[in-house]
Design brief:
The complex is a heterodimer. By secondary structure, chain A is mainly β. Helices cover 0% and strands 53% of the residues of chain A. In chain A, strands 2, 4, 5, 6, 9, 12 and 13 form a seven-stranded mixed sheet that branches. A four-stranded antiparallel sheet of chain A has the order 1-3-8-7, with no helix packed on it. A two-stranded antiparallel ribbon of chain A has the order 10-11. Chain A is globular, with a radius of gyration of 13 Å. Chain B is an all-beta fold. Chain B has strands at residues 4-5, 10-14, 19-25, 32-38, 45-51, 56-59, 62-67, 72-77, 86-93, 100-101, 105-110. Classes of the chains: A mainly beta, B mainly beta. The A-B interface holds A 4, 6, 33, 35, 40-45, 48, 56, 58, 90, 92, 99-101, 103-109 and B 4, 6, 32, 34, 36, 41-46, 49, 89, 91, 93, 95-104.
Chain lengths: 115, 111
């Protein structure tokens, strides 16, 4: 059983650019959630994908968007990068049956630095 | 508005003693709670969970207690080991919604 993987590990971009982060979910999981973790804070929920559709969104602007693919992997896209977007981006996979998701398992994260 | 609070940013404990990490929440609708441990440069690792229908759950050295009337949960680690030194997050959700995380508590276990 493979765990959650994320790529790339680190990324440096400049303000105004666009970035795509990738996540492969754990075997048997059908749901992917994305979080942003700023330094010294807990993970902040960005959105969740289930059955290739966005299912729940946190307090993030529309320039944060995502995709989920038929194999349950996912992408997080951020357009028009701002300095405050510098953070650790975490992907978590889980199994959802019915309305609620089960325990989430995290990948190692992608460290994004915006200059 | 912080729905999940961990009011102690850091905690130091001697090896072999008990570590108690606390978490308070404001939303009485929360029905499922998790604790995660995070080492530097790694993603959070799931430790233990508890449903709101229980008041205690144990898994080896880790025990989580839930006091619904006080909207408080705690994680007990007994005995504490140096490898337990990490940042601990509590997270909560209510039915059909997504998880809300606290800001974390950094635990240092001193040899």
């Amino acid at each position: 059983e493979t765990g959650v993987t994320q790529s790339p590990t680190h990324l440096i971009k400049t303000r105004g650019q666009q970035v795509t982060l990738r996540c492969s979910s754990q075997s048997g999981h059908n749901t992917v959630s994305w979080y942003q973790q700023a330094l010294g804070q807990g993970p902040q929920f960005i959105f969740q994908y289930y059955r290739e559709e966005e299912n729940g969104r946190g307090n993030f602007p529309p320039r944060f968007s995502g995709l989920q693919f038929p194999n349950y992997s996912s992408e997080l896209n951020v357009n028009a990068l701002e300095l405050d977007d510098s953070a650790l981006y975490l992907c978590a996979s889980s199994f959802r049956s019915g309305v609620s998701t089960d325990t989430q398992y995290f990948g190692p994260g992608t460290r994004l630095t915006v200059l | 508005d912080q729905q999940v609070k961990q009011n102690s940013p850091s905690l130091s404990v001697q090896e072999g003693r008990i570590s108690i990490l606390n978490c308070d929440y404001t939303n009485s609708m929360f029905d499922y709670f998790l604790w995660y441990k995070k080492y530097p440069a790694e993603g959070p690792t799931f430790l233990i969970s508890i449903s709101s229908i229980k008041d205690k759950n144990e898994d080896g050295r880790f025990t989580v207690f839930l006091n619904k009337s006080a909207k408080h949960l705690s994680l007990h680690i007994v005995p504490s080991q140096p490898g337990d030194s990490a940042v601990y997050f509590c997270a909560a959700r209510w039915y059909g919604q997504n998880f809300v995380f606290g800001p974390g508590t950094r635990l240092s276990v001193l040899p």
